[in-house]
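User: I'm writing a tutorial on reading structure tokens. Could you give me a worked example: one chain, its sequence, then its tokens, then a sentence or two explaining what the tokens reveal?
Assistant: Sure. Here is the example chain.
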Amino acid sequence: MDDYMRDYFKRKKFKKLGKLSGKEAEIVGQSIWNYIAENYGRNNISNILNLTRINRSEQNSIIYTLGVTYDRFIQEWQAFYLDMSTQVNQSYQTPTKENALLGENKKGLIYHNAKLSPNGGMVAYSTNFNGKQEVRIRDLTSGQEKSVVKGGYKVINQEVDEGIPLVDWKDNNTLGVVNIDKGNYQLILYDIVSGRSQTRSLGKVTQVKELSFHPNGKTAVVSAESNGNNDLFLLSLGKNSLRRLTNDSFDDLYPKFIPGTNNIVFSSNRENDTIKKENFKLKESNSNFNIFILNLDSLSQVLTRVTNTLSHDIQPIPKDSNVVYYISDQKGIYNLYKYELESKLYTQVSKFSKSIQHYDINYDKGSMVYVMNSGGDDQIFYHSKFALDQNNFTPQTRRQEIQQALFISQRIR
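And here are its predicted structure tokens:
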């Protein structure tokens, strides 16, 4: 929401609230409630809603509850986000149009899971438009594209899984795609040379969140849900079998094999480093995500904790056995970070003014591809050479300052 609203009033003329529709109406409406909560207190949200049920007028309810005219309220709400945008633009940068990989996203497609091929010559990405899904491959030299997998059905006013399809490269000629067919998750191995594909079931797992192949191409690690828990599974491509790696109540996401080792790095909201199945209490849930490492050669249920922050450290991509890149919202905007396991030090690499939603790095080429909001819709950006050794520092956004202050005050009590 913050990414969308920070430049909302700069890129378009504001319409009356009653004339908004679709995604625009949803996000703008959410921003209004957020403004009320931060400036007038959360209790006033329920007061406005209760009064609206009686007088059937949200404008009058705002006037009587907040004690300001409706026009003044709208002006203050706009100024709130314009001021937030000014603060961010003073310390952050926006990707240039030259780095935009695709044309203007006029249809409002949701881009997801952009992945660079092992040789860095192609990028695969998935699109979702109201449930209608497609996976495309783009040659980064010629700019030519082709569609390799299509599926799903376009629906109206229904919730869809925007994270499907998932993609990852098995090798330079084989693309793995996870999608849903008749309610069942399946893995498609598509040969980009012959155009042929093999399809296999992923068994009883549901809500598949991530697919990542081992460099040898014989196994893959999957983040998926089974029996209500989101855990990690090892997929053997030869035997077409799944072996559960974690089994507890915490969410284990974005797994990747660490090159040259038999370890897996992933992101989790677990508060400790031990895998144990126990009765889960909602009050013990952790909203923060940190990076952990699982050793496949060890029988120990103890993980190696990498980061320990009050933020969302997600989507780790290891360069080697020492360096791991990941994205984090430590400052309020998801940017790229680098962690060195030997020194146990991390640095902020990028300072984009909008959050990186999904990304991939080809370390051999030094290239990077990422999905980011641009003009209110998704866009894929590509850098043939991205400075991965940058060291940046940016201030926290207003929201992050408030959230961390609230967290600390709750811990003190």
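What the tokens reveal: The radius of gyration is 23 Å. Residues 70 and 351 are 37 Å apart (CA to CA).
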